[in-house]
Write a structure and sequence with these properties.
Blueprint: E1 2-4, H1 14-31, H2 35-45, H3 49-58, E2 65-68, H4 74-83, E3 87-89, E4 96-98, E5 101-102, H5 109-127, H6 132-140
Parallel strand pairs: 1-2, 2-3
Antiparallel strand pairs: 4-5
Amino acid sequence: MIRTKGEPGTGDVVHAVQHMRQIVREIKALTVLGDEELYNAAKVHGAPYELIRMVAKAGKLPVPNFSAGGIATPADAALMMQLGAESIFVGSGIFMKERATPLDVENDPKERAEAVSRAKAIVIATTHYNDPKIVAEASEAVLGSMKGLAAAAIEESQLMQTRGW
């Protein structure tokens, strides 16, 4: 599996969108290259030629592409699927009422209902991402709201998405 990079726990899906678009754009660029150009693309990407050739021929990665980081709403999940994600990973960020304050799903029935409604709505929106009516209905079913945080407000040394390749 390969993961798009977004900033986890923020509810800021912008970076996941940008990364997904970059991946799709680079895969599409490979599909029109000749064999000689694929050798060069393998060098540029630092990937084995056979892998580059396989991606160019299939027009997709040989592993599932899942999107994670900043996905916090049903609309975010549907958008990432429309952009080319094959699955969505939603982490603890959807269970935050404030930046560092998790919902008390064990002791507060209202907060448990809020978390469950958000999770169910994201599953529905991911499943029916091409049906705006269902995505809208799922979004309307979410109880409460989540306080987001713009990834741009986080100090670069603290960003998770800048780690790794």
